[in-house]
Structure formats: C-alpha cells, structure tokens
Design a protein that fits this description.
Blueprint (H helix, E strand, L loop, with lengths): L4 H12 L4 H11 E9 L2 E6 L1 H14 L4 E4 L4 E3 L2 E9 L5 E10 L5 E10 L3
Parallel strand pairs: 1-7
Antiparallel strand pairs: 1-2, 3-5, 4-5, 5-6, 6-7
Helix pairs in contact: 1-2, 2-3
Length: 122
C-alpha cells in the first residue's frame, strides 16, 4: 500500500470528524502507521497506534459534543514533512485553533504528528 502524504493527511483529518469508530479506524488504517505517534499538549508523552488515537478522538467527542475539525490552510510540505492549520468547533460554540506538524513513513502514512494549540478554550 502506498499513499501520498497529502492523501494521508486528508484521511487523518476526516477521522477527526467521523463519530463511527469502525469507519474512523478504517480511515486511520489507510493513513496512520501501525506505530504512528500522536503528540499534543495534553499528551506530551504521545499515543502510539491507531486504536489509541481513535480512543483519544472518542474521548474528545465526549468532552466536546458536536466536535468538527476543518483545515484552515492548505498543507505545506517541506523535506518529507507537512504543516497544516485547523479549527475545531463544538456544539457549545467553543472554538479553538491549532497547527499540526506531520512526518511520514516511506509508504506515505503518518509516522508522527505533533499538534500545537494556537488558541484554546479556557
């Protein structure tokens, strides 16, 4: 299997907007490396693997009902890495923004994603 980094990033972004766990895992299967690592300010030690990431997305839905993620910039590629900006909106009208820095495996899947909040709800 091979995928372009842009396609992998698009599937990963779709996974954040997919409430059905099986469909989300299918998106992550095609975009996230078996040992892919997700790091953000809430999990500085990182999560490893698709199921751990999917579980984290599920917890995010529980904490922020109606969560929707959308990109606010075109992905920018540089030296096998990618940067993209996004916005998250929940039903409660909470809005926050962030930036992802993404690294890829040789087959194009995401090997590491480091996320930073640009603005976050209090």
């Amino acid at each position: 299997m091979s995928i372009t980094p842009g396609e992998a990033n698009a599937k990963y972004t779709q996974a954040w907007s997919e409430p059905d766990v099986d469909k989300r895992l299918e998106l992550l299967e095609g975009s996230w490396a078996d040992d892919g690592v997700f790091v953000d300010p809430e999990i500085p030690g990182g999560l490893v693997g698709r199921e751990a990431l999917s579980d984290y997305i599920t917890r995010s839905y529980e904490e922020m009902p109606g969560l929707k993620i959308s990109l606010t910039s075109d992905p920018e590629a540089l030296g096998g890495r990618l940067r993209t900006r996004w916005v998250a909106v929940a039903d409660s009208s909470e809005t926050y923004t962030g930036t992802d820095f993404v690294e890829f495996t040789a087959d194009g899947r995401i090997s590491r994603l480091t996320m930073f909040y640009d603005s976050a709800p209090d």
